[in-house]
Design goal:
This protein is an alpha/beta fold. It has eleven helices and eleven strands. Strand 10 and strand 11 form a beta hairpin. Helix 7 crosses helix 8. The radius of gyration is 22 Å and the shape is elongated. The relative contact order is 0.17. The structure holds 6-O-phosphono-beta-D-fructofuranose. The site of 6-O-phosphono-beta-D-fructofuranose has 11 residues, from loops.
């Protein structure tokens, strides 16, 4: 078979390891041939492909980003978009099947194309870890490690000045990165979108840590919804899918905390640093296994399904199940972490 691979949506550490896992197994075990679509669905609708053989994937498992490039192109938009035009492109290029590596938007588009008869299998990707059909997504562990390292650094400077440090992390509408990095770094408060938390409560936790001689660390997820408000803080307009671009809540909270506690407070937004650089070994192994499992799905013709992690096993689930609902932080996980606050 001749298989096309694409990476779509925001980049994520581990994308290259998925590509390598799929190509190595596909060539070694099945004698398949591969091409890469450049920049996600854009490469599919514009028939923009690059060769993907053993040479092209050498040494890429440890590289961040994606060697194929990515974009947030919607394959149904534009004059070359839509299932019929894409099918014609694939026929012309002699491509039998697609492995689409992406998040919710990518998998939703893949589902529509599969319903229209295209042969697509999916590999889930997001640093946010918000897909309900998989226990963990690759990229999440790396983002948590980067955030934890940054918080360890914030704590030493905070302690030197007896300041409160606010660290804002990514995660869109879920608090997984905040919960895990905050627990790992010993945060005195973790603020996540799933939990309404009053300013009075935040100030209490900060004061309590400060009274014990600690420099309080407050971790806030970008999607945290301030008490008395209905939506997360957004000051940067909309993204290509019309979703609000988040970020900036940490800078907004810092003066409020300082005003209520009298403790000098500084905010740091970690931003895209959380998505850059080399994947952790955990993410490399997970990505490689998912890439190899995607080849099994292609060989067995499991179109319209994505590979996923359940416990330590790789399983496969339908696109419909994968994009059904966000995987949010359950109450018991937050309650467990909150015992450590203050
Ligand atoms: O979904 C991954 C993510 O990094 C979110 O955590 C964040 O809100 C968003 O993407 C940022 O998107 P962009 O890279 O388009 O600014």
């Amino acid at each position: 078979m001749r298989i096309g691979i694409l990476t779509s949506g925001g980049d994520c550490p581990g994308l290259n390891a998925v590509i390598r896992g799929a190509v190595v197994k596909g060539i070694a075990i099945h004698g398949h041939e591969f091409v890469g679509f450049r920049d996600g669905w854009r490469g599919v609708v514009q028939a923009d492909v690059v060769p993907l053989g053993r040479k092209e994937i050498q040494g890429i498992a440890k590289q961040g980003g994606t060697i194929l490039g990515t974009s947030r192109t919607n394959p149904f938009e534009g004059e070359n978009g839509g299932a019929a035009a894409i099918t014609a492109n694939l026929d012309r290029l002699g491509i039998d099947a697609i492995i689409a590596i992406g998040g919710e938007g990518t998998l939703a588009a893949a589902r529509r194309l599969t319903d229209a008869g295209l042969k697509i299998v999916g590999v889930p990707k997001t640093v946010d870890n918000d897909l309900s059909a998989t226990d963990y997504t690759f990229g999440f562990d790396t983002a948590v490690q980067i955030a934890t390292d940054a918080m360890d650094r914030l704590r030493t400077t905070g302690e030197s000045h007896s300041r409160c440090m606010v660290a804002e992390v990514m995660g869109r509408h879920v608090g997984w990165i905040a919960l895990h990095s905050g627990m790992a770094a010993g945060a005195h408060a973790i603020l996540i979108p799933e939990q309404k938390t009053s300013m009075a409560q935040i100030a209490d936790w900060v004061r309590s840590a400060h009274d014990r001689g600690r420099a309080p660390l407050v971790v806030v997820a970008e999607g945290f919804v301030p008490d008395q408000e209905d939506d997360p803080h957004s000051e940067r307009g909309l993204d290509a899918f019309g979703r609000p671009r988040l970020g900036g809540i940490g800078e907004r909270l810092a003066p409020l905390i300082e005003g209520m506690t009298g403790i000098e407070t500084r905010a740091t937004t970690l931003g895209h640093i959380q998505r850059g650089g080399t994947p952790t070994s955990y993410d490399r192994v997970l990505s490689t296994r998912l890439g190899m499992a995607a080849i099994d799905s292609v060989v067995e013709g499991r179109w319209g399904r994505m590979v996923a992690l359940r416990g330590t096993d790789i399983v496969h689930v339908s696109f419909a199940d994968a994009i059904g609902e966000l995987k949010t932080v359950p109450q018991e996980r937050y309650d467990e972490a909150a015992i450590l606050f203050g």
